[in-house]
Design brief:
The protein is built from five helices and 14 strands. By secondary structure, the protein is an alpha+beta fold. Helix 2 packs antiparallel against helix 5 and helix 3 packs antiparallel against helix 4.
C-alpha cells in the first residue's frame, strides 16, 4: 500500500470520528436540553343546584339554558295537589282549635249562666224554708211536743237543702268564671300547634315556585315540562359567574415561590391575553395522585398539589372550562 493511500485512510478515519462526535453532541444537546415547563389549568365557576323540598310535576319552566337570572326571578313552577290538600286540612284544624280556645276564654253561654242562677235562687229559697221548718220543729222538740225522730227527719231535710244550695252555687260560679286556667292554656297550645302546621304546609307551597337565590347563568336544565320530580331532585344548575377561579395540578418541584397569597401571571389562549391571579388554596392531592420519581432509583417522590387562584382584576369574557397556561 502506498503512503498516499495510508494518508487518505487516516484522513477518512479522522473525519468519521469527528462526524460521530458531532452527531452524538447534537443528539445529547436535544436529548438533555430542558424544555420550558408548562402548567395547564382551567377556569372553574361556583354553582348551585335548584331543587324542591316537595315532589311535584313540572308545570312551567320560566328560563332556558344560557339565560342570566337575578335574585328573585322565577325559575320553575311545580304542581303539587297533595300539598294543597294538606293546606286545607291544616287550615281546618286551625279553625277548630281557634273555636275551642274562644269557647274556653268566653266561658259558658249567657243562657247557661241564667239557668244556673235560677237554680241557685231556687236552692236558696228551699234552704230558707228548710231552715225555718227546722227551727220550729226544734222549739217544739224542746217543749216536749215532738219526738226526737221527727226532729232528726226535719234536720236531715235541712242539711240536704243546704248541700243542694252549695252545689247550685258551684254550678253558677263555674258558669260565670268559665273554663279553668289549665283548660285555657291547653286550648291556646292547640291553636299554636295548628298554626305551626299551617306555616309548615305554607313553606311547602312556597317550594312549588322556585326562585333564584343568587344571580348567575343557567347552565343545565334537567327535567322537561310535564315530568315528575322527587324531593330534592335537581331541576337546574345556576353558575355564579362572579365566583370564578382557576385550578391547576402542580408538581411540588414546579411550585417555586407559589404559596397562598402569592400572585402569578397566566396566559389565556381563548383571548391571547395574560391575567394576573392570586393563590388562595393549596392542597396535597394525596398518595393516589400522579407522582414522578426524581431519580431512576426512586430515592424520593414528587407529589402533586391542587392550586386554586382567583383573578386579581375582573377579566371580561372569562368562562368556565377555558384553559389557563403557566410557563416557567
Amino acid at each position: 500500500m502506498s503512503a498516499k493511500s495510508q494518508h487518505n485512510n487516516i484522513l477518512l478515519a479522522i473525519i468519521g470520528f469527528v462526524t460521530v462526535i458531532v452527531i452524538v453532541a447534537v443528539i445529547g444537546f436535544f436529548a438533555f436540553s430542558r424544555d420550558a415547563e408548562v402548567i395547564q389549568g382551567q377556569v372553574e365557576v361556583g354553582e348551585y343546584r335548584v331543587s324542591s323540598k316537595v315532589p311535584g310535576r313540572i308545570l312551567e319552566i320560566r328560563v332556558k339554558e344560557g339565560d342570566f337570572v337575578k335574585v328573585g326571578d322565577t325559575l320553575a313552577i311545580l304542581d303539587a295537589p297533595e300539598v294543597r290538600a294538606k293546606m286545607e286540612q291544616a287550615q281546618s284544624a286551625q279553625d277548630a282549635a281557634s273555636a275551642l280556645e274562644m269557647k274556653a276564654q268566653n266561658g259558658a253561654r249567657e243562657e247557661q249562666i241564667r239557668g244556673a242562677y235560677n237554680l241557685l235562687q231556687q236552692a236558696k229559697a228551699g234552704l230558707e224554708i228548710a231552715e225555718k221548718s227546722y227551727g220550729r220543729v226544734q222549739r217544739l222538740y224542746d217543749e216536749g211536743v215532738l219526738s226526737a225522730q221527727k226532729r232528726d227527719e226535719v234536720f236531715a231535710q235541712y242539711k240536704a237543702m243546704e248541700a243542694q244550695m252549695k252545689a247550685a252555687q258551684s254550678q253558677y260560679d263555674m258558669a260565670v268564671n268559665g273554663a279553668r286556667r289549665e283548660d285555657k292554656l291547653a286550648a291556646a297550645a292547640q291553636v299554636g300547634r295548628a298554626k305551626g302546621a299551617v306555616q309548615e304546609v305554607s313553606s311547602y307551597i312556597n317550594e312549588t315556585v322556585q326562585i333564584a337565590q343568587m344571580e348567575g347563568e343557567v347552565m343545565d336544565i334537567y327535567p322537561k315540562q310535564g315530568e315528575l320530580v322527587g324531593t330534592g331532585s335537581p331541576i337546574m344548575t345556576i353558575a355564579v359567574m362572579k365566583d370564578l377561579w382557576g385550578t391547576f395540578n402542580v408538581r411540588e418541584d414546579q411550585l417555586n415561590n407559589m404559596a397562598v397569597g402569592s400572585t402569578f401571571t397566566a396566559f389565556v389562549p381563548a383571548f391571547n391575553k395574560y391575567v394576573k391571579m392570586k393563590v388562595y388554596y393549596m392542597k396535597d392531592q394525596g398518595s393516589y395522585a400522579v407522582w414522578k420519581a426524581t431519580k431512576s432509583n426512586g430515592q424520593y417522590d414528587l407529589k402533586t398539589f391542587e392550586v386554586k387562584a382567583r383573578p386579581v382584576e375582573k377579566f371580561e369574557g372569562l368562562r368556565p372550562g377555558m384553559s389557563l397556561i403557566i410557563k416557567d
